[in-house]
Amino acid sequence: MDRHSTLSTGLFLMLPVILEVEVLKLKQMLSRISLVSVSLGISFFQNEISCLNEKGEHVDWFLIYKLPKFTSSGVGSGLNYMYTDAVVKSWVKSTYTVNSTEGALGRTFAQLYQGKGYMSNSTAYILYNDGPPELKYLMLFGHTKGALYFDKSQGFWISHTVPHFPPFPERGFDYPSSGRLYGQTALCITFKYQQLLQISQQLAYYNPRVYNCSMPAVFQADMVVLGKMCEGVTPIVHMNKNLEILVSAGGELFCNFAKSQLFDDDIYTGWVAQELGTDLLAETWQRFPYQLAPNCSLPKHVFNVQNVSLPGPVVFWSHNDHSKWCVSWKYGDGWACLGDLNREATQAKRGGGLLCTQNPAIYSGLRLAVGLYDGC
How many domains is the chain built from? Predict the structure, then answer.
């Protein structure tokens, strides 16, 4: 069924919802992965679909922070970005622009685009965006943006905040002119196939607008939910939210918070902060008068980041930043989350999610980016 044209260990300490037996299973699985990789002397990613860095090398994950057009230092191109990954572990300013085929996004999507992966019967993909390229915006879907591309062995999941992106594969890789104005983020994670099966179930809660996809017959028995979304069928969920623990191909742990439109609450305040047991600093697109006030009534509080400061220094206000992320206010908690939803009343009524981790590089990079923030 194709629609080409339209359509770490710290994690275990702070999640009471995970039963002890499930924790043990995860630890045993990670141990087996480590032993196999050492005994065979192979890379997790060799000759497989994965996130790629700016040298075209396979990486477990990368994070880019696209800088807005207007910053404290003046008017820029709106195409420059900061980059970090599982090897670099700190922000560096990319020598490429975000629309370059030599940047991390360009090289990663090249596996689907230039590699003609979208025409293959042995690979599958979905592109989703509530503001898709070339099509009208609809609020019927979750406020979520991303891409999955995989085969029966491995693939990547990119969660990003860029409307009208990425293009239809037949058009080739590019970056929308509308995306230059605001700051944006994109998190790419490499996953083995079994984890992608879990992700497909989580996306049912997101209710993404899938505008382009291919789900060949070899995947249809496994990827039932993605197959239905590829056909334009709205998935049915039996709960209003769901939390899953995902393990990257390299063994990094991520909590995936997925909420449907039935969970009528701010995801940061009503769920994530309370579940992780940490006060959060949330950077979301703070547009007056739509933004929510800081929440100080629940056991764990959520404050709004008012401006962002990245190495350079590059400083910009939240209303110039379309990113959606949060970090623990307390350094010792060490949580960082990236995802889809703004702290706005209307978005409480839409699907979406967050990918959360205690990876020190991701946490420190985002925590140090926090400038001013409000409080109680």
Answer: 1
